[in-house]
Write a structure and sequence with these properties.
The protein has ten helices and seven strands. The protein folds into three domains: 66 residues, no CATH class; 81 residues; 149 residues, Histidine kinase-like ATPase, C-terminal domain (Heat Shock Protein 90), CATH 3.30.565.10. Helix content is 59%, strand content 12%. Helix 4 packs across helix 5, helix 5 packs across helix 6 and helix 8 runs antiparallel to helix 10. By secondary structure, the chain is an alpha+beta fold.
Length: 365
């Protein structure tokens, strides 16, 4: 408190940093913390911009509500550095509020699901499912962290090189543009991974209907043709009368991912091999289920690559996200009670079979 009230602005600056760190670790409701925050807020009007900026940084480190008043002033401060720090702090505090609301919604959804499991399988069933889900969530978070770090590390290196180029008085336009281009590519790669993660973790509302599988397959093929130029043609050969009860948008997503993989496998063929034959999409009924097969004559996969093909974050393709086939598994197996079967031989191609019940039995005990 003495440092915060000092007339020496450098000592007051040190006091703000120390006070912000202390407030972070105090227990909620501590009266001393309220007095310290009150003093910090008062320093938001300090004549030195360095102190005002430090107050804005302090506001970004604690959720104490009194900082809202000072941030409202600092975002219009005449000093650009103070405004930038205040805007950043305000954005971070809004993110906290949004995260808290989403966290409560998530907790309510999880508890409702666990309550249903407990009603059906007892307390031991609830505990077992909770442990398994926590293990899966921890594994997913750990793997995602490693993937993001792998992308951020070269991005940070490019940023350092760009700063070095800018600091070099003799730097030319060419190296600067090259480094900026590499940064742009890495940012796009990071964005694609995060978008794929969002698609994988989405919990869409499943609206099931009896759909003609030929139409579903042709819609998927059209989407792939529009998105990719080149590669072998896609031939759909399915009886127009063959139907299954599915969520059409989700099944289209799954088939689109499989067809995209098939085309990429054919584009990647070595020059020593002949051009790939058309990709064949067929389907047939088997008792109480239907089987949709996508067969390509591309590069194929080794046993090792095939074994990891449906594992999250595992990819053998340059620029791949590792979410494509896992999303297919989620759609087919978790959402439709079906199964995905893959067969592949290097140099001969791959066949993906989507095996679905002709009638969906959601909620079956």
């Amino acid at each position: 408190m003495a440092a915060l009230g000092s007339e020496d602005w450098t000592r007051a600056l040190e006091g703000v940093a120390a006070a912000a760190a202390w407030v972070q670790v105090t227990e909620p409701g501590d009266a001393r913390a309220s007095r310290v925050v009150e003093q910090l807020v008062a320093l938001g009007g300090h004549p030195k911009w360095e102190v005002r900026r430090a107050v804005a940084h302090a506001a970004a480190q604690t959720r104490h509500g009194d900082f809202e008043k000072v941030l409202a002033r600092l975002v219009t401060d005449h000093n650009a550095r103070v405004r930038q720090a205040a805007e950043s702090a305000a954005l971070r505090r809004r993110d906290w509020a949004n995260a808290s609301a989403l966290g409560r919604q998530h907790e309510e959804h999880v508890n409702a699901t666990l309550d249903d499991i407990e009603a059906r399988f007892g307390v031991r069933g609830r505990s077992a499912v909770k442990r398994a889900s926590e293990h899966i969530a921890n594994t997913f978070a750990r793997e995602l962290y490693h993937e993001v770090i792998k992308l951020l590390t070269p991005l940070a290196t490019s940023a350092d090189r760009l700063v070095q180029h800018l600091g070099d008085g003799g730097a030319t336009r060419g190296p600067l543009l090259d480094e900026a281009g590499r940064m742009k590519e890495r940012i796009a790669r990071l964005r694609s991974v995060l978008e794929a993660m969002r698609a994988y973790t989405a919990q869409p509302k499943l609206e099931l209907a009896v759909e003609p599988l030929r139409e579903v397959a042709e819609e998927s093929a059209a989407l792939v043709r529009d998105a990719r130029r080149g590669g072998p043609p896609i031939h759909v050969d399915i009886d127009p009368e063959l139907r299954a009860e599915v969520c059409r948008p989700r099944l289209v997503q799954a088939l689109t991912n499989l067809l995209t993989n098939a085309i990429e496998a054919c584009i990647d063929l070595p020059d020593t091999l002949p051009a790939a034959a058309p990709i064949a999409v067929t389907a047939h009924a088997e008792q109480d289920r239907v089987v949709i097969a996508i067969e390509d004559h591309g590069c194929g996969m080794t046993e090792e690559v095939l074994a990891d093909a449906t594992v999250l974050f595992s990819t053998s393709k340059p620029g791949g996200t590792g979410f494509g086939l896992p999303l297919v598994v989620k759609i087919v197996e978790s959402e439709h009670e079906g199964r995905l079967a893959l067969e592949s031989r290097p140099g001969h191609g791959t066949t993906a079979r989507v095996i679905l019940p002709a009638r969906w039995h959601g909620g079956r005990a």
